[in-house]
Each structure stands twice: as structure tokens, then as C-alpha cells.
Protein: D-alanyl-D-alanine carboxypeptidase
Organism: Tsukamurella paurometabola
Amino acid sequence: MRWLRLLAVLGLMGSLLPVRIAAATPVTVSLREDVEEFGRQMRVPGIAARLVGPNGTQWEITAGLDGRGEELSAESPFVWGSVSKSAAAAIAVGLADSGELDLSSAVREVLPEGASWVGDDVDVGDLIHHTSGLPHDVSLTDVPRSQSARSAIAESPPPRHDPRGAFRYSSLNYLLLQAVIERATNGTYSQALQSHVGRPSNARIVAESRQYNAIVPAGFVPWFGAPRANVPAPDGAGFGYGYLAGSIEALGRYAQWLAATPLLRDGAAATVSTAGKAGYGPGLYRERIAGRDVWWHSGAVPGYFTHIALFPDTGQALVLAANRYGELESNEFAAFARFITRRSAGDEIAAPTVAPATTLPVLSAIAGVAFILLGVTGTWRLSRRGRLRSARRTIIYGLLTAGLYLAVGMATWFAHSLVGVPSIVLNRWAPDLAFVLIALSTASIVTSVVMVTATVRSAMARHRR
């Protein structure tokens, strides 16, 4: 099968990690080593990081291969994930500064096609701060489409939403914000991005589906611990929330520019309280770390992970990008991103212990095989003449057992959808677990049918005796 061949090839790729690093200083050597070690431990095919400031790059590392099997370089593209949100917020703030958009305007006024998505009192600022009441509905995001956000909103059924006010992280806010920007500028989101972010930061950022498809290589998702190639198709309506793309060079230029903007440098950016220690501002979390104000955000799509941390007091920015990510490994990537942010801020902490996600898929597979073997054994028992004393007992035993297997099969097929994770989403973010669940569901249903057939045949044989 194609995935088996990919698994074998990518397993070899995971061991090939050619490394290019900038000139060493005693202060930065350990961080570079930590990045390289994290890449090895997590079997990341390619990883890059750098710390940039007003005087240029202070340290950097690129290690491994991109999705084409070529050596990673400073120009290799990554998908930025939710780091894209800070760019959308920066565009909105820029439009507000030029008088083209009022952040206090109601969404229903500036975006009539989005009026049914939020309450009448929700304004543009609520979208930026995730206080609109929109849910975290993954079925409406990460959809392969080339249409604009305005078109996607007009053609999609509105989600159920809560009243505005409390912080509730949802990419739907930034899908709406992209549409607001498209309408305010009467142009494409890519044009607005280049005008308000790309050119000012001198960063080559991709925000157009055709260009994205031409330059972005496959990333890698975990497949029972090994990296498996995955090409994240762009969401044309999602460049505002997660599908910008660019190299570590572009990410560094963008982040350093953002760190030096008056909005962050002068502490003028408003934040709202979240459930944790950090506040949330213009597409970024704000937190006090080692006595410093640090703005940060992580981002991910299936196959790519990025992280930025901004230090406005010095104009510095830390950027990290990796071409491997799956939802079952989210804690490992988040822990390392937080570690490297705190270390860069001056906190002396130890690197976290990380490992590829294999436990849940492997244990699920083992449990599934054991469960099916029990079913096979039960079917064999039903087929043995004389094992049970009566046709009635045969029927009761067989149908109850078949019902159990049918119930398990249906549960594994539908349960994740009932909790808001459709099969297509699970397959995208955790393909190994999705494979196990589909295989278990199919095998359970087949076992149930076979057991019913064996029950009927065995009962009929006993009845004739």
C-alpha cells in the first residue's frame, strides 16, 4: 500500500538531519542545541529557529529536510497556522489608523453577510479578542477551498453562538475578521496583507491559494510515531486565522517588525482576560515572564507548527518552525515552545521531556486486535457442534455477543463526531488514530454479521438433531 511505502521512506528521512547554524556565542549555544535535540526526539524531518533583533539575527539554526527531501534552508516555506492571526489583527489596526475601519463598529454593519453569525452587539474588536461568543467549531475551518472569506460566510450556515463578553478562543472570529478586511478594502486579503504587513516588514508572506499550492511542500503528521507526508490544502477563507505561509526568514522579519510596532512597544494594545495567566490582545497572548512583557502565539496545521515570541522592550523576536505536527503531539510542541520562550526571556528552566505520540494509537490498535480476536473465538465456539446444550442458548449467546460487537462498531464510527470531531477532521489531525478507529469499527461490524450468521446456522443444526 502507498502509506506503507511512504512510512518506510519517511522513517529513513527522519534520521537525516543535516544542520546549519549561525556563529556561536556562549549564551545561545544551549538554545540551539535544545532546538536540535527537540527535533531529534520528536523525529521532526525539518526544524528551524532564530532570535532576531534591531541589529539582525542573533542566533539561528536550520536542521533536516523539507517535504521534497531537500535540505532545509532559511528560504524553505512553512505554514504558519494561528500565528497568522496576529497578521490579521495588524491589518485591522492599520485600517483603523488610516480611517478605513472602525474597530468599534458592529460586525452586522461592516459585514452584512456575517450578521447572522454573531449577536447584534458584537463589534470588530470582539473578533480580534475572541469575545464574540463564537464557538470553537472545527467543522467550519480548515476546509480546502479557494473562495474568499466573504463568499465562504455567505454560503455557510451560521454556527450557534453565545452572548459576547467572555474570552473563548475560536478561529471563526478570524474567518470573520478576514471577511471584514476584504469588505473594508474592497479587494483581496492578500492585497491587504501586502500593503499593511508584507511591505512594511519586508517579509515575503504567501496569502493566495495558487501561490501557496505552488511553493508549499508537504509537511509531516505522526503515523504511529513516524513522520508521514501530508500536504495541508489551503483554506482561501482561512489566511486570516491559519494558512499564511512563509520561510523562517520571512517569519523572523515579520515578528521583529511586529515587536517594534508602537502598538506593542508602547503598551497601547488592549488585552482581555483569559482562563490562564496571559491576556489576549491583537492576535497575540500577553504574559509577564522573568519580569518582562512577552507577546506570543503558536500555530499549527496538520504537518506544520510555528511559534513566535516578541520582546518589545528590546525589539527582539523569537521564531520557531517545524514541518511535523499532529494533534496527539500538541502538548509536546506547546511545552517546547513555552520553554524556549521563557529561556529567551531570561528564565532559567530545564527543557521538557518529549516523545513522539505512539501510546494512544498503539494501545488502541492492541486493544482493537484483542477485541476482534475475542470475537473470532466466540464465532468459532458457536460453530462447534455440541458446545452448547440447546438451540435457545446458542441464539441468546450469539445474538447478545453480536449485538455487543455491533454497538462497539457503531460507537467507534460515530462517537468522535458526536463530540464535535468529524471523521474528516480526525483523519486530518490524527490519521493513525483515525485509521485504528475505522479499522476497529469495520472489523467489529463484520464480526457482528459473521456471528449472527454462525448463530443462525448453529441453531438450525441443533434444531434438526
